[in-house]
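User: Second chain of the day. Same drill as before.
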Amino acid sequence: MATPKVILYYAFAPLPDPEAIRLWQYTLADALGLRGRVIVSPHGINGTLGGDVVELKRYVRGLRSYVPFKGADIKWSQGAALPDGTTALFPRLSVKVRDELVAFGAPDALKVNENGVVDGGTKLTPHELHELVAAEDVVFFDGRNHIESEIGRFREAVRPSVETTREFLDLLDSGVYDHLKDRPIVTYCTGGIRCEVLTPLMKQRGFREVYQLDGGIVRYGETFGDDGLWEGSLYVFDGRVATDFSDHAKIVGTCDRCGGPTNSVRDCADAACVQQFVRCDACIGVDLGCDVHAVTAAP
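Assistant: Same format as last time:
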């Protein structure tokens, strides 16, 4: 593989036949030797794929040839290759149809048209975000789960204690964030897609001034790196697990065992467990398991 890369993208548009789109997407990506995950729903498409830059560019051209996906925002990052020339960051290609692109558990609450999500948050570029922060007392609201926000977040952000996206609506409906309903709220997530869904759901629940960071943390990092309002590492959903925007990224995560600084996210060693945790190298050498499934490392 000459130049391994990873792309992250989404596009919201009404799709009357998601299964036909799924078949087309699988055929296109498989023919180009790409691996990764693509989700198709009646609301649009969301994907992250790894492969050679030339083949990924061909894929992007094919994706955008379909009019509803013409405006898909493609975010590029560095990849990695195996000796056989395939991507090292994804084990296989998966293309599936789901009721939702992001599993908030409210497929009927999201409305999309040919222009995208209906009545979502006001989109801000990274520079516009800085202008808003300078002008108003902004609340940053993290649209990711607690493991993701543990290793990186915007300064003084509200970080919901959730393990899955499905937990957000119960938390919002509980009233715990009602005191923020009259404050300017800027939501953010990895590439922007979760905020596309979260912001209309928040507005439906009475949050009055809701913004979303357009392009997510990825686009902000491309613009300001670690010299802006972002602190820490970015959790990503591939073999890298975490990535930094510069050589001077701040370590904001804390080991769940010793409390020391680390940005290392680990999987529980118990094959039946799907839990992840933040743990430093020294402690993972002693304990490979989560709190529920303790697995002691071999001497």
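Residues 18-31 form the longest helix (14 residues).

User: Great, on to the next one.
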